[in-house]
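Protein record
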Amino acid sequence: MRILLWHGWLLEGSGSNVGAARLSETFRHAGHEILLLCQEGHPERYPWIDAWGTVAAGGVRELRPNPSAAPGRGRCVLLRPEIGRLLPVFVVDEYEGFEVKAFPHLSAGELGTYLGRNVEALRAAASWRPPDAVLAGHAVPGPAIARRALGPSTYVAKIHGSDLEYAVRVQARYRELATEGLGAARAVAGATHEVLARCLQLVPAARGRTRVIRPGVSVDAFRPRPRPEALLEVAERLEADPDTARGRPSSHDALVARAVASGSPDELDRLATTYDQDVPDPDAAARLRELARSERPLVGYLGKLIPQKGVELLIEGASLARTDVDVVIVGFGTHRDRLEALARAAPRRIVFTGRLDHRYAPGVLAATDVLVVPSILEEAFGMVAAEGAAAGALPLVARHSGLAEVAAELQAEVGRPGLFSFEPGSGAALAVAEGIDRLLGLPSDEHAELRARVSAFVAREWTWERSAELLLDAAGGGEPRDRTGGGRLIRP
């Protein structure tokens, strides 16, 4: 089967980026042919990408093979739509080679140009390799782009959460754009019932088309492992990674202290722009080796370091916990040095690593006893909680939005209501502390049994193979209807 997937951004960093990558890899492994439209600037890093090029109204150009491609049953070609330097996003971060602007801040002309160029690119890609199935990412702008390029009922829309909260809810023009795209979709897929309910509240035209399709976890990578072994292996690999030289140097710690002493929070924000946020810290390996030697329980966080993710609740909660713990914070973002300043005042050892991609993150999660997901933003699912559970880290997630569904399913699996979640809002930091103490206070044999059970549940229920099958079913399995399904992966 030939599959065309429109995803407007990169292949690492956010949950939707990782999802686009893993789905494409899974489709290729199953023997399908994938055209992946996105703005990834380093396709050579992905061995499941066979070739890449650019695409615009004039067609596909500059197609070249990937010398690092691994053998596979299928084939994946990445095409970068020629959109210019402006890249609209839901949450502002640094994107190499682009001028980044949040969707609500676009002028009418900027939005029109961005949509028009993507429509031309998608139409040209579909003409070059006519697809059997089309998947368009996010509530906006992917579905509207697909409708304008290919016509109604030709695509499946795959919504997330940031699209709803940072664009559709914020401005009427994005509600109109979502109505155009979702109202004409063959099906509208979302990770949880909760995110689909939010979508229908904002875009009633999607009613009757929705399907719950959970994202997956790469269970071959995210699996339980002994703590010292996992951390030491990650440390050894980091020591051989030349990119770490561009990360946050330890000398910035003194600059953070100076900014705190002078009462200059703006200087903390400036510091976060003076190093490469996209790579691990130069000292990450040494910090992980220290954690490997520690006998204290390890509490972790993996994700973006931005205010919406609530990382300060973890730092405060770990400080309030009765249990003496180490904390590892894995991630990148504009809030990094503000969090470093907060951690300096904490009574716990709090270690930052910088960004660790899927080469490194599974090992750190496997070494983590409790993984806290303290997001204050409404989340569609909470991919990191599922990845942590697959690796054997007991999750502790905020009990709201799609995160609550993730927690509820894991809690139902072990028969322990409320075990893996905490109440958000006022008093959340204390609730995090109580949750950490609750999970780390379990007898060691019970803790080990829970790790095994949540890992096995994720490996059985939340796989990329299952997600891929359900999306292909939605793309070609009869008239759209509300449903949740399962079964084996559709083969080409």
User: Anything to note?
Assistant: The two ends are 5 Å apart (CA to CA). The first strand starts at residue 2 and ends at 6. The chain has two domains: 2-215+463-476, 227-461.
